Amino acid sequence: MAFITLNTEKLKENYIHLDAFFKRHHIQWAVVSKLLCGNRKYLESLIHLGVQQICDSRVSNLRTIKSINPSVETIYIKPPAKRSVSSVVQYADVSFNTELSTMKLLSKAAVSANKIHKVVIMIELGELREGVMRENLVEFYSDVFKLPNIEVIGIGANLTCMYGVLPNHDKLIQLCIYKELIEAKFNKKILFVSGGASVTIPLIDKGLLPNGINHFRVGETLYLGTDVYNNTAYENMHNDVFKLYAEVIEMNEKPMVPIGELGHNLSGEKLEFDEAAMSENAHRAIIDLGLLDIESDHLTPFDDDLKIAGVSSDMMVIDLGENPRNIKTGDLIEFKMDYLGVLRIMHSKYIEKRFEGVAL
């Protein structure tokens, strides 16, 4: 069967590196845990590192985090659905918000629970996902400050995740200015300007991060060691914290070009092949992994000689060429994944989750 592994030592080293980096620049940061899809044993490993603040977009995952360590501050990082406000107040210490009607419900739920619920107001800076429009900002804050049991602790913004709008000095300066405007207008202190994510990290070393940005939310760079802004890997971080293993369930030498009239495949594609390869054969391995688990665009064999030849719902074909490593049925093929690849695999109930170091 296929399984994914988490290397806790490499995760620890990535965490220590980032934690020291942010401390040098006097920036508070929270770990985004949604990649772990609520897996309890992986969350326990994350919390064991000493993480004080964890962000997630699923209330069920925050509930698991609180059950592991109630002292960890939990942040719900998308505007809450109205039907889930009671759970958000119960399991999230902080939530990101953009809708006044929802915040009124959060206030009501917080009053009923006799607790203070902290909020960060998200501002639209051009990504066109969540965020209060800038021309409505002052009025929005005015209404929010009147809500009982709601404490406004920050202002924030999201960039890159949907359309790929990159953060830059000008956009982040705008966020800092809005924070100063709100403080001056209402004589209130806004503690956090949460304008940083994995994609924003390179701006720090370049001296392009405004001094007012004092809070980051980081997931991908921690888990994969990636420079998201430049789509490269950091040399001083591990990019193989996660590995995927799939077992060879058939091994044969077969033609490189399909035989017969071609129609559309499972994905709706009509493929074309080089007729010059009609007479060529290659060793091909079928592994126990498919589109139910992950799209082939999001994983790559660690062995550069291996190529993904095709994929169906629950099987994938690997071109081994001349098979110089003598791979055979029952062997495991090892893969690296990008962020979406790990996310899909973690979400699949068919893929076992292990720690690296356990006998394979």
TrEMBL record:
Gene3D superfamilies: Alanine racemase
Keyword field: Isomerase, Pyridoxal phosphate
GO molecular function: alanine racemase activity; pyridoxal phosphate binding
Highest taxon above the source species: Bacteria
Pfam families documented for this protein: Ala_racemase_N
Domain Alanine racemase N-terminal: 7-225
GO CC field: cytosol
Entry cofactors: pyridoxal 5'-phosphate
PANTHER family: ALANINE RACEMASE, LYSINE RACEMASE
Protein's recorded name: Alanine/ornithine racemase family PLP-dependent enzyme
High-level lineage: Bacteria, Pseudomonadati, Bacteroidota, Chitinophagia, Chitinophagales
